[in-house]
Hints:
Elements: E1 33-39, H1 46-54, E2 62-69, H2 75-85, E3 89-94, H3 100-110, E4 115-118, H4 130-138, E5 143-147, H5 160-174, E6 186-189, H6 190-196, H7 206-216, E7 221-225, H8 239-257, H9 260-285, H10 290-316
Parallel strand pairs: 1-2, 1-4, 2-3, 5-7
Antiparallel strand pairs: 4-6, 5-6
Helix pairs in contact: 1-2, 5-8, 7-8, 9-10
Amino acid sequence: MERPAPPAPRPQAPLVLPWEASEHREKLSQHGVTIVVPVYNEENGVEGVMDRLSKLDIGVPIFVIAVNDGSKDRTAEVLGRCAARIPNLRVVTHRKNQGYGAALKTGFTHAHTEVVVITDADGTYPEDKIRDLLDQIDDGAEMAVGSRTGADVNIPLVRKPAKWFLKQLASFLAGTDIPDLNSGLRAFRRELVLKYRPILPQGFSFTTTITLASLTNGHRVEYVPVNYAKRSGSSKIRPIRDTLGFTALIIRTVLYFNPLKVFYPVAFALLLCLCGFLYYDVFIEQNLGDKTVFIFVAFLQVLTVGLLADLIEKKSRL
C-alpha cells in the first residue's frame, strides 16, 4: 500500500532581527497623541500656545490637556475662553499651586493615548518640532527630548553657568552626554512615566529626574535640536536655590539607580588624600598622624557603604 506523501511544511514568518524592527514596529502615535501643558500664571502667553497646538497638523488626532496649577492671575479666564472654542482642549484645574511636576502627573493621569507630549505655556518652545519628536518615538525611542541646542536659543545669561555645571555633573554621573537635562518639550511613551511615577517629584525637577532615571536604566532617549524663544512673562526659576536643589536631586537620583557612580569618585578622592598624608607622615614626620587614620577610616566607610548600596540596588532588581 502506497503511503500518502507528507504534508508540505508551513511557510514560516520571516525572522525580525532587532536592528530591522523599525520596519515592522507599530507606530504608537498613529492612534493619537495627548499634549499636556502645565500652566501657572501665564495669562499673556497661554492663549497663543493653545491656538498653535489646536492648529498643529501631525497627521494623527491630537488631544490637549491644559493643567491650570492654581494660577492667581487671569489664566483660568483665558483657558476657559480657549476651551469654549477649541474642541480638542480639556482644562483641568488644581485649586492650589502644587508644582510643575504635579501638574504633569495630573495630565498623564487624564491622558489615554500611548504617546504623550509635554510643552510649556510660555511660548518658548516651537510646537512645529513635535512632529520630529513623534518620529523618534515611532522609531523606537521611549523618550524624545527637544534639546535647546538650535540656532536661536534665548537662555538668560545669569542661568547659563548653572545650566552648564548641572549638565556636566549629570552627564558624568549618568555616563553619557546629556545635551539638555531639563527641557520642557518632550514626547514620551506613557508607560515610561508611569513606571517611574512614584519617584518623580512635584516640582521643576520632574524632567531632570525622568531623564536620569531613563538613562541610568537603559531606556532609549533621543534628542532633537530645537530653538528656544524668549519667554512671555516672568520666569518661575530661582537661580541659586534651584541650582542647589537640582544638584542634590541629580546626586540622589543617580544614587538611587547607580550608587557606585557617586561613591567611587568620592572613595578615589579619599584614597589620593590618604596616599598624600601617608607619604608626609612616613617620610617627613616619621610618625603616623591622626588625620591619616581618619582619612583611612573614611575611605573604608565610603567604599563599604558604596558596595552595600550597589548590592542592595542590584538585589532590588531581581
